Amino acid sequence: MTVFTNVIGNLHSTEWHERLHNADIESLYLDQWTAQKSRFLAKSDKGNEYPVALKRHSQIIDGDILYYNPEERKAIVLRLDLSPVLVIDLSAIKDKSAEEMIRISVELGHAIGNQHWPAVVKGTKVYVPLTVDKKVMLSVMETHHLEDITFEFQEATEAIPYLAPHEIRRLFGGAGHESHSHIHGDSGMHAHIDAEGNMHYHSHDNHRTESCHCNNNCADDPEHTHYPHC
């Protein structure tokens, strides 16, 4: 069985779009979380299974091409089921004083950074990938009451035309090591749930960090003997 180890191009580029015109394209549909991995087994729309083992830390985007045979006019393409993106519009603060613009921008940066959300800034808009539930992200934005700033979720297809390739990768392909929830507790401890489903605790007082693999192990350890913080 052939193992695909390289991305040879992208369907959305002008060159490959023309080259694959009328070609037989076999699509491997990946959800956004599988797309964050460099090694996986995927089933195509034709029912075939293909192992993929890209270089470590490779980032996949929609339309990446794994295989093309010009004689057969056949290609195998990765297609991603992309999540919506939160678009924050700062255009309304352009007429404010420099001091007000700085203050509001810093407050927005604090709100996003405190949640450890990756972001891409384009002009007066900030694009933030969906890392937790929509309601949670909207609640965070509403809690900060940022004046004259509007925000809404857009479909990925609406946002992509305004983004450069490396920005698309950051929003839709490279969130694997950055995506996690950031939960504040009354005790001063913070819990981070990373992309693997593991929970990490730390305190701002002593910078203590502990890990808990509860999602994967609690079923085997109901008394939390080995994972007391679960």
Task: Write a compact overview of the structure shown.
By secondary structure, this protein is an alpha+beta fold.
What does this structure look like?
- The chain has 230 residues and is an alpha+beta fold.
- Helix content is 22%, strand content 30%.
- It is built from six helices and 14 strands.
- It has helices at residues 14-19, 98-114, 134-144, 156-159, 165-173, 214-217; strands spanning 9-10, 24-31, 39-43, 49-53, 64-69, 74-81, 85-89, 120-122, 125-129, 150-154, 181-184, 189-193, 199-203, 209-212.
- The strands form four sheets. It has a four-stranded mixed β-sheet with strand order 1-5-6-2, with no helix packed on it. A four-stranded antiparallel β-sheet has the order 8-9-7-10.
- A hairpin with a 5-residue loop joins strand 3 (39-43) and strand 4.
List the helices and strands and how they pair.
Layout: E1 9-10, H1 14-19, E2 24-31, E3 39-43, E4 49-53, E5 64-69, E6 74-81, E7 85-89, H2 98-114, E8 120-122, E9 125-129, H3 134-144, E10 150-154, H4 156-159, H5 165-173, E11 181-184, E12 189-193, E13 199-203, E14 209-212, H6 214-217
Parallel strand pairs: 2-6
Antiparallel strand pairs: 1-5, 3-4, 5-6, 7-9, 7-10, 8-9, 11-12, 12-13, 13-14
List the keywords.
230 residues, 4-stranded antiparallel sheet, 4-stranded mixed sheet, elongated, 30% strand, alpha+beta, 22% helix
Largest sheet: 4 strands, mixed
**How much is the average pLDDT?**
77
Task: Indicate the overall shape.
Answer: elongated
- Computed CA radius of gyration, to the nearest angstrom: 21 Å
Global structural class: alpha+beta
Give the low-confidence spans. 174-230
- Tell me the distance between the termini: 41 Å
Percent of sequence in beta strands:
25-35%
If strands are numbered along the chain, what order do they take across the biggest sheet?
A: 1-5-6-2
| Secondary structure: number of strands | 14
Number of helices: 6
As a percent range, the share of helical residues equals 10-25%
**Strand-and-helix sequence, N→C?**
EHEEEEEEHEEHEHHEEEEH
